[in-house]
Design brief:
Blueprint (H helix, E strand, L loop, with lengths): L7 E2 L5 E3 L2 E2 H8 L3 E5 H16 L5 E6 L6 H9 L3 E4 L2 H9 L7 E3 L6 H9 L4 E4 L2 H14 L3 E8 L21 E2 L4 H11 L3 E7 L10 H21 L5 E3 L17 H18 L7 E4 L3 H4 L3 E14 L6 E7 L8 H5 L5 E3 L9 E6 L7 E8 L7 E5 L19 E6 L2 E6 L4 H5 L11
Parallel strand pairs: 4-20, 5-6, 5-13, 6-7, 7-8, 8-9, 9-10, 9-11, 11-12, 12-13, 15-17
Antiparallel strand pairs: 1-2, 2-3, 4-14, 14-15, 14-19, 16-19, 17-18, 20-21
């Protein structure tokens, strides 16, 4: 049985998170329900800072907001000493609503609109991570118009193909992100940025992919980035101040996955970085920046569902039967199994002390092949039981939708036996709030 953070089995045989009985949370707040373990969130933030800075003091950690962006999460990240990574006006606005200091924010994206860049400049954002030459030129014109300066990083493509799902590989040469190092685009952009009077180039950035279960691709990218920093120094005399290698460390969704711990990851990355600085003769010790998202929030999240119906159907390709257990959510609150073949582990929150005697398919309630988990080992469950799907803190709430006009679930933050709503459940009225019927359609 996989338990994370403050999770445990209480005296009732129920799953407990943050000192709160999961069955009671479902009864009180309804399902589907996202539950975030505050203690684990904070511990993961601290582990990143402590593990990296104890080995390389000039390190900053920025939380990748795309993984789980709420005002409360911004507040936790700030309290734990982290920076923040945003990719849109909406994420920036969320940070502003949380009163997160804008000078601690990195603004990413392969297409930042003029309005978004103006917003970033108006609010004094810390770093704009420039993705392409057109963006650099637009930003240069905007800072001239406003009489301001912009501190930037250049996003580079290191040419590393990571071992992960094809839809979340981002560091290879053929990608929509960044400036290619190998074809000369990156060094050309550096020289251009250094000529822009309103632009202050601070460093370079890359991100190679997501849910990486080893360090091989990360360390290869880090080597490439340090080597490029040496090329910049040799060709321009400019010393890169920051080297940001993004995020991507994976988490354990199922029993047989064994990703590095945060401490193991920090050890490998800092040793590689220090060695590469020495190898390429960079003596000024640039800042090392990491942007974890999933590995901070992923294991801290649990989604609670109510079992509705069970169905026993014959398997067409082999003798035997499949048991479908349908729950009251699915692809609208977790689209990742259908998008990325993502795998998850589930438990019966009210039957944690029972043996997992059967294998079932946990099905969502939406149209299409809405399946959350193909082969889940479960005790015998009944209608009304509460199922808990583990490790749903990253990219579940962020990617939730109103498919089939289902309201998005509430989000709870639990700690020390207390539960606080940090995102309210949508209502049916919320679903039609922005609908407009033209007069020509009549009554």
């Amino acid at each position: 049985m996989m338990l994370f953070g403050t999770q445990k089995v209480n005296s009732k045989g129920h799953l407990e998170i943050g000192g709160c009985d999961a069955v009671e949370l479902a009864q009180r707040f309804g399902t589907p329900l996202y539950v975030m373990d505050e203690a684990l969130l904070r511990q993961n933030c601290r582990d990143y800072l402590n593990s990296f800075r104890s080995r390389y003091a000039n390190t900053d950690i920025a939380f990748a907001g795309k993984a789980f962006m709420t005002a409360a999460m911004c507040r936790i990240a700030y309290q734990e000493g982290l920076y923040l990574d945003v990719v849109s006006a909406g994420e920036m606005h969320t940070a502003l609503a949380a009163k997160f200091p804008m000078e601690r924010v990195y603004f990413h994206g392969n297409f930042k609109s003029e309005a978004e860049l103006r917003m970033a400049l108006d609010h004094g954002i810390g770093r704009i991570v420039v993705d392409n030459i057109q963006e650099l030129d637009l930003l240069n014109s905007l800072v001239a118009e406003k009489g301001k300066k912009a501190d930037i990083l250049l996003r580079l493509t290191p040419g590393i193909d990571p071992h992960t799902h094809r839809l979340i590989r981002l560091g290879q040469a053929d990608t929509k992100f960044g400036l290619n190092i190998k074809d000369g685009s990156a060094i050309s952009a550096v020289k251009r940025a250094l000529e822009c009077p309103g632009i202050s180039l601070r460093g370079i950035h890359c991100h190679i992919g997501s849910q990486l279960l080893d360090t091989e691709a990360h360390t290869a990218a880090l080597q490439v980035m340090v080597e490029f920093a040496k090329q910049v120094l040799d060709e321009t005399g400019f010393a890169i101040e920051e080297i940001n290698t993004g995020g991507g460390l994976g988490i354990r969704y199922v029993e047989d996955q064994r990703p590095p711990t945060i401490d193991e990851f920090a050890d490998v990355m800092t040793r590689t970085f220090i060695s590469a600085l020495d190898e390429f003769g960079l003596t000024h010790e640039p800042k090392l920046v990491q942007e974890p998202g999933r590995s901070i929030v992923g294991t801290a999240g649990t989604t609670l569902y109510t079992v509705g119906t069970m169905k026993r159907v014959p398997i067409t390709e082999a003798p035997g039967y499949r048991i479908y257990v349908a729950v009251d959510g699915g692809m609208s609150d977790n689209p990742r199994p259908l998008l990325y073949d993502a795998v998850y582990t589930a438990v019966a929150a009210g039957r944690m002390d029972k043996s997992t005697s059967q294998v079932v398919t946990i099905a969502g309630k939406h149209c299409e092949t809405d399946t959350l988990i193909q082969d889940a080992r479960m005790p015998e469950v009944e209608a009304g039981d509460i199922l808990a799907v583990q490790c749903t803190g990253a990219y579940n709430y962020s990617m939730a939708s109103n498919y089939n006009r289902l309201p998005r679930p509430a989000v709870l933050l639990v700690a020390d036996g207390r539960a606080a709503v940090i995102v309210e459940r949508e209502t049916l009225d919320d679903l039609v709030r922005h609908d407009v019927i033209p007069e020509r359609l009549g009554r």
